[in-house]
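ugh finaly. both done.
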Amino acid sequence: TLANNALNKLSTFTDPSERIGLEVISVDHGLGQIKSIESLQDGGEDYFIVEFSDTKTKNFFPVKNNVNLRMISSKEEFEIILNILKKDRKMEEISSKKDKLIYFNRSVSKNCIKEITNRICELAVVKDVTVNEQKILDKLIKTLVIEASSVLEISLKESNELITTYLKEENGKG
């Protein structure tokens, strides 16, 4: 199922070296590729060395219990994501500024595209968002746009237009 998608795929390889070369995505860093697996100390924990194409940077992610990195979705999985964006969305009742802050800052699993998409749909209908709340939403949308561009083999501009069109449509319906 989609809920068990990319993270589980990344963790199901029996030989860690089978992951080298895989295209991955991180909410915090964008699109990247696993270049190698290294141990930072003798006998220490293994880390994925991931190079991110946009920033030309490399970052380390633990091989075990990784919560910030996942494989790119397949086209079939991404069609499910697009269908989630098309669904009817309703704003949750938020009674105070404090509750709104808690609502926006709830933890979202960075390695589950379905959870990220559901959070985008929830937050996209909230009225009167602050600058910080908008930053949270924008970061999640950017991740979805980057992934859509890669999966659907379209430009970032086309991907951004696709995702924002779905989000702007009244209640998520076309």
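ok and the 2nd:
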Amino acid sequence: IFFGIHLVPFFPKVKNVLRSRVGENSYMGIFSLISLVGLLMIIFGYERDIHNLYSIHSHAYKYSEYVMFFSLTFLVAAYLPTYLKKITKHPMSIGIAIWALLHLAINPDTISVILFGAFLAYSVLDILVSELKKQERKLSEAKILYDVLSVAVGVLVTSLGYNYHEYLSGVALS
């Protein structure tokens, strides 16, 4: 459900038909609601498997908080007029790819590999499709203040995520 709704923007004709039938705000609301339902199904339906496909490298745990800081900073930068967004063009997809790679490094079970591998594949596909379309995005004027804000919020969200991961996802980090 989550990935299905996120594939709609890859097909502009379908997206435009939906937007014209229900209106821009309704389309965005329905898109967000379906995304949320799909994400909640992933979170509450996630269960680790005992069959591991590969061994975990100990440094993945050791540096995970720092890697997640970069991931979350990219995610925040996607919503603000930052230089990070101007330079990378795809901070949301890059942030999700970093997040997925880290989770693949520390979750070698079959179910996790499928789940986080799907997020990584979607992120790469999103970047490739966007680059092939060569869509010109109208970006607001980047300001260094928003980059600083992205970093600050990245630190805050990383700290909260690290300390409350078990409550958010059911998986303890210790």
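summary for the 2nd one i guess: The chain is about 75% helix and 0% strand.
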